[in-house]
Amino acid sequence: MTDAGFETLAIHAGQDPDQLTGAVVPALYATSTYKQDGVGGLRGGYEYSRTGNPTRLALEQCLAALEHGTRGLVFASGMAAEDTLLRAVCGPGDHVVIPGDAYGGTWRLVAGVLQRWGLRHSVAPVTDVDAVRDAAEQAGTRIIWVETPTNPLMGIADIAALAEVAHQAGALLVVDNTFASPYLQQPLALGADVVVHSTTKYCGGHSDVVGGALVVQDEALGESIAYHQNAIGAIGGPFESWLVLRGLRTLGVRMDRHSDNAERIVAFLCGHPAVTEVLYPGLPGHPGHAIAAHQMRRFGGMVSFRLAAGAQAALDVCDRTELFILAESLGGVESLIEHPGRMTHASVAGSTLEVPGDLVRLSVGIETVDDLLADLDRALSAAT
Ligand SMILES: Cc1ncc(COP(=O)(O)O)c(C=O)c1O
Questions:
Q1: Which pairing describes strands 194-198 and 172-176: parallel, antiparallel, or unpaired?
Q2: How many CA atoms lie less than 13 Å away from 340 in the CB half-sphere?
Q3: Where would you tag: which of 26, 184, 223, 341 has the fewest CB atoms within 10 A of its CB?
Q4: Rounded to the nearest whole angstrom, what is the distance from the C-alpha of residue 310 to the centroid of ligand 1?
Q5: Whose CA is nearest to atom 12 of ligand 1?
Q6: 19 burial via Cβ count (<10 Å: 0-12, 13-18, 19+)
Q7: Which residue numbers are catalytic?
């Protein structure tokens, strides 16, 4: 099965037909505990659902196969996955390097929560390998944390180069692969040590679930994270795991349509007089284009752009679209629009990670693209 293609793995890995009934869809094991056949007589190792649940395991196995890792671990949210990982790998006095435009929640966790427990951090632009290397020289660097493409500025990190930097510094390279999804990019194959997902986004794909995941290459690291996950308790529930697994089965076809639609929208925005800059790694003029073309299958459904008329115009455009729903989050089948400075990235206001006020972020869905273009055209016409 490991040699199978992506879509085959997405539909079959961890999802053998049910032994008892032949059901082709994995069962939803909504149970907290399991009958023991005499004390310690566990069936299949199952004892208690915080420690293990067959529906969660099915998703973990599928994600591990898609990311080419040895082990997947499924959490209650992307942030729960991040917190567990940082606590499993780092201790007081240790140091992590985080991206210059990290997801606001990652920044809040590191700077607002874990700093109080003695975790030190530096901020470095992930697009600049030398800057990351310099930041990683600090004693006690345990993790270089990377998002690529970054959220919301769509910067591209060179995963293979940063893996080398991390390993030279004796650190792990952690890649938040939420924006790309495992269909477009597989960081472990490029040398990363851990992949993070907010499965809330493309993996789930239907905006009906909150979840997170980690996938690792090293078995001992996987064991250590599993120990911490069980101790901390931020596990993904069986229903949420079942929904994400259902989402994964169509990830490939969805990502291709997200990418098709985004490409059409990028072309439209590039020619629009109200727009000063379009941030999309698929554009040949994007500074990370060559690296993205090498490490990504396609360029995905996330597009950011800046308005010539400034911050108020950006807020107005967000208010005026009808099909693009004004909402946080991303990666669902429906198109979303948001103002990062006031919404997803409000928590970094005033910090070095602050994002420009004239920036709008789109999560381009898989609706009929002509309808999406018409909606944006209407919303932007007042901004010229
Ligand atoms: C890139 C990225 N990483 C992590 C997270 C956190 O995931 P969750 O909201 O599932 O906790 C998000 C959420 O928006 C995100 O965009």
A1: parallel
A2: 29
A3: 223
A4: 27
A5: 198
A6: exposed
A7: 50, 103, 176, 201
Q: Which residue's alpha carbon is at the smallest distance from atom 8 of ligand 1?
A: 78
Atom number in ligand 1 closest to CA 79: 11
Helix (H) or strand (E) holding 361: strand 359-363
- Show the DSSP H helices in 67-169 as ranges: 78-89, 104-107, 129-136, 159-168
- Token pair 């869905």 is at which residue? 365
Q: Please list, residue by residue across 349-372, b when 16 or more beta carbons sit within 10 angstroms of its beta carbon and e when fewer do.
A: eeeebebbbbbbbbbbbbbebeeb
A 10 A CB-CB count for 213 gives: 29
CA of 158 to the centre of ligand 1 (A): 21
Confirm or reject: Cβ of 104 under 6 Å from ligand 1.
no
Ligand 1 centre from 21 Cα, in Å?
37
Give yes or no for residue 148 CB within 6 A of ligand 1.
no
What is the pLDDT, as a whole number, of residue 355? 87
- Is residue 120 scored above 90 in pLDDT? yes
- pLDDT, tens only, 192-246: 999 999 999 999 999 999 999 999 999 999 999 999 999 999 999 999 999 999 9
| Whether the model pTM is above 0.90 | yes
- Distance CA(288)–CA(291), nearest Å, equals 5
User: Separation of 69 CA from ligand 1 center, angstroms?
Assistant: 21
CB 376 within 8 A of CB 364: no
Our answer on whether the CB atom of 101 is closer than 6 Å to any ligand 1 atom is no
What residues contact 341, with CB distance under 8 A and at least 6 apart?
A: 311, 314, 349, 354, 355, 356, 357, 359
Residue 130: other Cβ atoms inside 10 A: 10
Q: Rounded to whole angstroms, how far apart are CA atoms 52 and 33?
A: 9
